[in-house]
Each structure stands twice: as C-alpha cells, then as structure tokens.
C-alpha cells in the first residue's frame, strides 16, 4: 500500500499575456520564488518532492523557478526531484480542425483570421476571450467557460477528471516515502477541479495560489482551497459516458 502524500497544485506566475504561449514577467518569477520559499519551510526531513508541470512556456518557467528556489531553501533530509512534463496537468485544451491543441495554439489561429466572417470555432473562441490580456488575467474567460457549454473547448468536467487521474498517478510506490508533489499548472483546470469538488465556482486562483490535495494511505483524498475543505472516500470514478481510453492517452499521442 502506498503511503500518504500531498499534491500542491499551483497556478503559474504572472505572464506577459494570453495571446500566445508567453513566459513569465519579472513579477511572475518573484511570485514563484516567494511560493517556493514558503513551501520549503513546510517540508519535514525525509520528504521527497516531485515536480511535474504543464507543458506551456509559463508552466515550465514557473516550475523552473520553483525548483531552483526549493533546492536552495529546503532543510537537510529533503530531496527535490527533477522537473518533468505531465499532460495530466496541462492547460485548457481546444479542438481545432479535429486536433486537440493547447488553448494558446487556438488563440493564435483565431487572431490570424481577423474579425469578419468567423467560422464557428473562431466565433466560440471570440465569445470566450476578446481581450487576451487584462480580462484574461482576471479570469473572465474561465468564468465564461465554467458556466457556459461550448462545442470546441475541453469541458470543465474532463479537466477535473484528468486532474484526478494525475493526482492518483502521483502516489508513491512504497508506504515509507513521504512524498509532496509540487505542480505548476493553469487556472482553468484548477478552477474546474475545485468547482466540481465543492459544487460551486469559488473564483479565479491567483498566481501561485495553491489547491492542496492530501491523500491518505487508504487513497481517500481531502481537497483544500482557501477556506474550503472536502474529504472524499476515494477519487471520483470515471463515469461510463467518458472515453477512458482517450483520457488515458491524454496529450501523449
């Protein structure tokens, strides 16, 4: 039986915008350093830190700064593993011409069309986001996505279930390992994850704001976000109307 472990889901740091796959601003890097210092202070001797991350530029950049900070700040007896990309924790996905792509790929294709006579997929993206900077930074597009059904965006429920799959896959192999996973990811799937867990939308996570999932040795998880807490008997099972084979290869083909 695997030992208990914790998963810390973190929204990436401040980015230069959402009109392409940008990296972090100087403020975004500082946000990641501050969170890394705070996390390092929590880690007890004997803890093993694993560091999966989303595959966007801002996800990677956040993970790099977090790891550098942790390596320099953790106490003795704490090991910090290498970074590795994990599609379970990728950004919001979009169906573009039959291909599943990152939302930043879709926005680039949408902006290349201008504003006249948009095909339906582009009109849907325009309803989702017409600003790509200030409104996007405040999470307005994600609020639209959470509350309005769409045809081309990955559904919020799918994003939540893939996060559960990723969390389950992070369980340590042995019962003696004290594992903490620090995951640099994105606000859209994070927001879907907490909204489906708690039954309402608590709003946009701030940059580097954590969702914490503590998993007992029995596999029972507890989800915490801000002042909310939910204990479950087990991760929610995948319902029969989802294609579990597709979800299993998510982002890996």
Indicate the topology.
Elements: E1 5-11, H1 26-42, E2 47-53, H2 57-73, E3 79-85, E4 93-96, E5 99-102, H3 103-111, H4 120-128, H5 134-137, H6 140-147, H7 156-169, E6 178-185, H8 187-198, E7 210-215, E8 221-225, E9 228-231, H9 244-248
Parallel strand pairs: 1-6, 2-3, 2-6
Antiparallel strand pairs: 1-7, 4-5, 7-8, 8-9
Structure description:
- It is a single chain.
- This protein is α/β, with parallel strands linked by helices.
- The chain has two domains: 5-91 and 155-248, Rossmann fold, CATH 3.40.50; 94-147, no CATH class.
- Helices cover 38% and strands 21% of the residues.
- It has nine helices and nine strands.
- The chain has helices spanning 26-42, 57-73, 103-111, 120-128, 134-137, 140-147, 156-169, 187-198, 244-248, and strands spanning 5-11, 47-53, 79-85, 93-96, 99-102, 178-185, 210-215, 221-225, 228-231.
- The protein has a seven-stranded mixed beta sheet, with helices on both faces. A two-stranded antiparallel sheet has the order 4-5.
- The longest helix is centred in the first third of the chain and has 17 residues, at 26-42.
- The mean pLDDT is 95.
In short:
With 253 residues, the chain is of the alpha/beta class. The protein has helices spanning 26-42, 57-73, 103-111, 120-128, 134-137, 140-147, 156-169, 187-198, 244-248; strands at residues 5-11, 47-53, 79-85, 93-96, 99-102, 178-185, 210-215, 221-225, 228-231. A 7-stranded mixed sheet has the order 3-2-6-1-7-8-9, with helices on both faces. A two-stranded antiparallel ribbon has the order 4-5.
């Amino acid at each position: 039986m695997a030992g208990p472990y914790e998963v810390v889901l973190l929204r990436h740091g401040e980015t230069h915008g959402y009109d392409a796959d940008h990296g972090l601003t100087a403020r975004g890097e500082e946000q990641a350093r501050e969170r890394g210092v705070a996390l390092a202070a929590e880690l007890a001797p004997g803890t093993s830190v694993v560091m999966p991350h989303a595959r966007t530029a801002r996800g990677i950049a956040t993970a790099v700064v977090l790891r550098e900070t942790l390596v320099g700040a953790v106490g003795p007896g704490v090991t910090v593993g290498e970074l590795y990309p994990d599609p379970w924790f990728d950004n919001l996905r979009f169906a573009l011409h039959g291909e599943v792509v990152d939302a930043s790929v879709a926005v680039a294709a949408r902006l290349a069309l201008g504003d006249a006579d948009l095909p339906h997929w582009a009109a849907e993206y325009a309803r989702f986001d017409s600003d790509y900077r200030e409104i996007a930074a405040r999470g307005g597009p994600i609020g639209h996505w959470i509350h309005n059904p769409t045809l081309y965006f990955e559904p919020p429920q799918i994003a939540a279930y893939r996060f559960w799959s990723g969390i389950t896959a992070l369980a340590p192999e042995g019962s003696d390992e004290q594992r903490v996973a620090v995951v640099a990811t994105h606000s859209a799937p994070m927001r879907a994850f907490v909204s489906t867990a708690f039954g309402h939308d608590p709003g946009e996570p701030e940059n580097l704001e954590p969702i914490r999932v503590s998993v007992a040795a029995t596999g029972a998880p507890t989800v915490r976000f801000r002042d909310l807490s939910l204990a479950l008997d087990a991760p929610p099972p995948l319902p029969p109307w989802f294609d579990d084979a597709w979800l299993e290869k998510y982002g890996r083909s």
